[in-house]
Specification:
Blueprint lengths: L1 H17 L7 E9 L7 E8 L2 E10 L2 H15 L7 H25 L6 E9 L4 E13 L2 E14 L2 H16 L3 H7 L8
Antiparallel strand pairs: 1-2, 2-3, 3-4, 4-5, 5-6
Helix pairs in contact: 2-3
Length: 194
């Protein structure tokens, strides 16, 4: 019951805030820590950035290699060769590992005593473009919430709209623990339609 009330409140807020959107605005639609229980390794956010839909995954982990491997394993199982978008999935998986290697190499060069590595992943669906962006972010943390203080682009990977939209759905279902219909409502309106 509480989950339904929260969902209705979010939908109401989305409807009232969408009429007041100005250029350069970012509205948080939903967020969840990952994993759901401490110790947290990051956070997933669904954001409306201007008219774009953005699924943002913030990772802050001592075992980032294992987190990246888990994401790659899920990509392989969710995107078999017969599914439209599987080539985008393989390209994303490869670039994700390259981003991890770059972040690890930079940390070694900095000779930082901080064992946490940070990675920011954004699945972005715009009216005319769809892509995945990988960043090395500078983060601060308060409780289970992260703030992005800065970010350096590691890779921007153009993909099909189908791949991005379906991944937005899957990430929302998994991370926010929502039913299909709730996810579809959260993603409305879809930039540029489908």
């Amino acid at each position: 019951m509480i989950r339904i009330l929260v969902f209705c409140l979010v939908c109401l807020l989305m409807a009232t805030s969408s009429s007041n959107v100005q250029a350069g605005t970012e509205t948080l639609i939903w967020r969840a820590p990952i994993p759901a229980e401490p110790p947290y390794q990051g956070e997933v956010r669904l954001i409306r950035r201007d008219s774009a839909l953005v699924m943002q995954t913030i990772l802050n982990s001592k075992v980032l290699r294992h987190v990246v491997a888990a994401i790659q394993k899920k990509e392989l199982s969710d995107w078999p060769e017969a599914r439209e978008g599987w080539i985008d999935s393989r390209r994303y998986s490869d670039e994700l590992y390259r981003a991890y290697e770059s972040i690890q190499a930079r940390a070694k060069r900095r000779k930082s005593s901080d064992r946490y590595l940070n990675l920011l992943i954004e699945f972005i669906l715009q009216e005319r473009h769809s892509f995945v962006a990988l960043y090395e972010p500078t983060l601060s943390k308060s409780g289970d919430q992260f703030s992005i203080q800065g970010k350096e682009v590691l890779k921007k990977l153009n993909t099909s709209r189908t791949y991005i939209y379906n991944n937005l759905q899957e990430i929302a279902r998994d991370s926010f623990q929502l039913e299909e219909q709730e996810v579809l409502k959260l993603l409305q309106p879809i930039p540029g339609g489908l």
